[in-house]
Specification:
The chain is of the alpha+beta class. The chain is about 15% helix and about 15% strand.
Length: about 300
């Protein structure tokens, strides 16, 4: 499949990637649906896409940050005396080591994919329906992030709009900003009012939403690059397979995760999550077939290099 990309700069400095896709039959994994043959639905309501320039950043958590995460876990979970057991070192060891990663330029959705956008793919026959009812007022409204989608569901939607799922390095760079020094998308300190989380009986549920929130909610919690809800609302699929050893020993230039395995890494936390899950370095392995009501995604896009990437 050949793909050309038309780039438009908006007044806010965001890129809208109008992917003009020469669509052929989709030959994916067994059981995959055929790709849409019409472009009428492509980017019908495409969210703003932010261009992330090429460069390096520090991925993962330092030992000091892991200690701070442990303390945050102790004070922000609902388990009372059981927090000491729940907040173990093993909970955070997947975030280490801290490494310098080099990435090529890419685009990434400013918001999580909404139910409205995903249902257009379903209507075209290119996507399976989400596992969340459209009538569910808690998580199924059109402006809320689509959830109840498996890794393959998310992958097929992104392909439908001319994109792909972000690698977890791309996801973390977009959440942490160019310096890689932010512990949360908005900065270094936790603020319970800047993300939709803790809505399952946690003591930090002070964000104003009982369950899912619209994909454009919490503008004050945006990342340095202007992405929304990189913390909370729904967990987000990434393209990387999970492997205990690959994260610390894999390639440092455009890493793609392990070559085999049935689990993928999800990022960002959700409306159900405790505060520690909102940290940009937190990562969790999930089976590819999982369709949780608080698990969604956003798409990434390949973009051509520009002169600014060399600076």
């Amino acid at each position: 499949m050949r793909r050309s990309v038309k780039r438009l700069t908006t007044p806010r400095g965001l890129l809208v990637l109008g992917a003009l896709v020469a669509v052929t039959a989709f030959c994916g994994a067994p059981g995959a649906l055929p790709r849409a043959r019409s472009q009428a639905h492509l980017h019908a309501q495409l969210a703003d896409v932010v261009r992330i320039r090429a460069g390096s950043f520090h991925r993962g958590a330092s030992e000091r940050e892991l200690r701070e995460a442990f303390q945050l876990c102790l004070v922000s979970t609902r388990f009372g005396a059981g927090n000491q057991l729940r907040c173990s070192e093993q909970l955070f060891e997947l975030e280490a080591p801290r490494r310098t990663i080099q990435l090529s330029a890419y685009g990434i959705d400013r918001t999580e994919v909404s139910h409205a956008r995903y249902r257009r793919c379903v209507s075209s026959g290119a996507c399976l329906p989400a596992g969340v009812s459209a009538d569910d007022p808690r998580v199924g409204q059109p402006e809320m992030p689509v959830s109840g989608v498996s890794y393959t569901d998310a992958e097929q939607y992104c392909a439908f709009v001319g994109g792909r799922l972000p690698t977890e390095s791309e996801w973390e760079r977009a959440a942490a900003g160019p310096s890689g020094r932010r512990r949360f998308p908005w900065g270094r300190q936790y603020n319970g009012r800047l993300a939709n989380h803790g809505d399952d009986g946690r003591p930090d549920a002070s964000d104003g939403h009982r369950y899912a929130a619209p994909v454009d909610a919490f503008p004050n919690g945006q990342s340095a690059d202007g992405l929304l809800n990189m913390a909370g609302n729904v967990w987000e699929w990434t393209a990387d397979r999970f492997d205990y050893d690959n994260y610390g020993n894999g390639p440092s230039v455009n890493p793609r995760g392990a070559r085999s395995g049935g689990q993928r890494v999800v990022r960002g936390g959700s409306w159900r999550s405790d505060a520690y899950s909102l940290r940009v370095t937190h990562r969790v392995p999930v089976g590819e077939g999982a369709r949780f009501p608080d698990l969604g995604f956003r798409c990434a896009y390949d973009v051509p290099a520009e002169p600014e990437d060399a600076r």
